[in-house]
Design brief:
Largest sheet: 6 strands, antiparallel, barrel
Strand content: 35-45%
Number of strands: 15
Helix content: 10-25%
Structural class: alpha+beta
Strand order of the largest sheet: 1-2-5-4-3-6
Number of helices: 5
């Protein structure tokens, strides 16, 4: 069982339309791309899960910094936006599994849709650190919603309209993605069509965040066996080839 941790707000700012970047301190020494944090909202039963958009650890200060990005959607996210530097939050971390980092001779194409760009930004940073050649393409509905950090950005249309051409030109061996279900399903289909390995970070409403409530169950194809998996505990990162998309 993960322990409740407390972090101090170090910075909070609006980075795009209805999109907030929040940084807070942590005693954790490492978090991996794809993992998430779950933050307690006062007077709310359920915590709110957020992908980690960046993590750094200062050995001299013996303190880490977690960065999350979130869209303003309701009471929980609006509460977080109201916080000030120095305020303290209660959170659980690190939660979930993480993306597998390939060998440096592989090439990776990263696909982020909307706020799904968050874990892609952290993954890109780690791939760069490990000398893995990569390219991040992201998609947003409007120009004022764009979050910086991509190698290419699609505004208005579907980011998937550009992916096949990128595969043909960039020739990646691996696809990584996070975003709405429709985008992730398309990523898995295009990976299969091109004979590529894909890993996806799934977005799902997570009630408990630790696999107890079973409220975020999906179905996986493990060989010839269909298995249930919780996105929060068994994921949120899954092999694209194993996910069963039919409801």
């Amino acid at each position: 069982m993960k322990k409740n941790l407390e972090g101090k707000i170090l910075d909070i700012k609006t980075v795009a339309k209805d999109t907030v970047e929040l940084q807070f301190s942590t005693v954790l020494k490492d978090i991996f791309p794809g993992q998430f944090v779950s933050i307690l909202i006062p007077n709310k039963t359920l915590r709110r899960p957020f992908s980690v958009a960046n993590f750094v650890y200062d050995k001299h200060l013996e303190e880490g910094i977690i960065t999350i990005l979130f869209k303003l959607k309701g009471d929980g996210t609006n509460y977080l936006k109201s916080l000030k530097t120095g305020d303290v939050i209660d959170y659980l971390a690190p939660l979930g599994n993480n993306f597998k980092i390939p060998e440096s001779n592989k090439k990776a194409l990263l696909i982020g849709a909307g706020i799904g760009i968050a874990p892609m930004l952290y993954l890109k940073k780690i791939l760069d650190k490990n000398s893995v050649e990569n390219f991040l393409i992201s998609g947003f509905k409007d120009e004022d919603e764009v979050i910086e950090g991509s190698d290419s950005t699609v505004i208005g249309g579907s980011v998937m309209d550009k992916v096949q051409a990128l595969i043909d030109d960039f020739k990646p061996e691996i696809l990584y993605s996070c975003g709405p279900k429709i985008v992730l399903e398309m990523v898995c289909n295009i990976a299969k069509k091109n004979g590529l390995y894909a890993e996806i970070a799934m977005e799902k409403v997570m009630a408990c965040g630790i696999g107890v409530c079973r409220g975020c169950v999906i179905k996986l194809n493990k060989g010839n066996e269909i298995q249930n998996a919780s996105v929060c505990a068994d994921g949120p990162v899954f092999s694209g080839a194993e996910v069963i998309w039919e409801e």
